[in-house]
Specification:
heterodimer, A: about 110 residues, mainly beta, 6-stranded mixed sheet, 11 strands, B: about 120 residues, 7-stranded mixed sheet, 4-stranded antiparallel sheet
């Protein structure tokens, strides 16, 4: 089983739609969680951190469910510019490693 | 401020040749990471350094791969000899430690390697 699993998509949605991505992680000792965004042929960039209480940044809302070991990202009022691949990222500190484990990404295509 | 700088941006080489990828992290960052990204395997961590010391190289695929960080502002990833299956985008990333929490990694633009 992969350490971080995501639905690869693609998710094709019209402008203005609400879309949600889920991600599951296998290591219950994981402590830090993030969503990164990667545009085509570009480097990944941090979209937002995910906190236990859930957090919101404009049209983006991230949730963490530790009991079920999943993370979600909700995008409201989708824009064409939201088209990208969204990477779920987890850090497990139990081994002392400070590295991140990236999911394979979920591709979003917002249609006009 | 300049971000993470990688060179070259594109490299095309023939099987068996030595390839050297270069990275300059963001000034003041004490962690440096090398990743490889392919369609089949996604983004994989190869090795990371803390204060120029290699901490975890368990992701390095085999002995043909080696990485060094001679100082805080420079790192290299070398493949010798290169093989067609090494074709991928290689990213370098850096971050800075703040307490016990994991912090944002800043990625360079990547080196797109093609081995013929």
């Amino acid at each position: 089983r992969k350490e971080v699993e995501q639905d690869p998509g693609p998710f094709n949605v019209p402008e203005g739609a609400t879309v949600a991505f889920n991600c599951t992680y296998s290591n219950s000792a994981s402590q830090s969680f993030f969503w990164y965004r990667q545009d085509c042929r570009k480097e990944p960039k941090l979209l937002m951190s995910v906190y236990s209480s859930g957090n919101e940044d404009g049209r983006f809302t991230a949730q963490l469910n530790r009991a079920s070991q999943y993370i979600s990202l909700l995008i409201r009022d989708s824009k064409l510019s939201d088209s990208a691949t969204y990477l779920c990222v987890v850090n497990s500190m139990d081994t002392g490693r400070r590295a991140l484990t990236f999911g394979s990404g979920t591709r979003l295509q917002v249609q006009p | 401020d300049a971000g993470v700088i990688q060179s070259p941006r594109h490299e095309v080489t023939e099987m068996g040749q030595e390839v050297t990828l270069r990275c300059k992290p963001i000034s003041g960052h004490d962690y440096l990471f090398w990743y490889r990204q392919t369609m089949m395997r996604g983004l994989e961590l190869l090795i990371y350094f803390n204060n120029n010391v290699p901490i975890d190289d368990s992701g390095m695929p085999e002995d043909r791969f080696s990485a060094k960080m001679p100082n805080a502002s420079f790192s290299t990833l070398k493949i010798q000899p290169s093989e067609p299956r090494d074709s991928a985008v290689y990213f370098c990333a850096s971050s800075v430690r703040r307490g016990n929490y994991y912090n944002e990694q800043f990625f360079g633009p990547g080196t797109r390697l093609t081995v013929l």
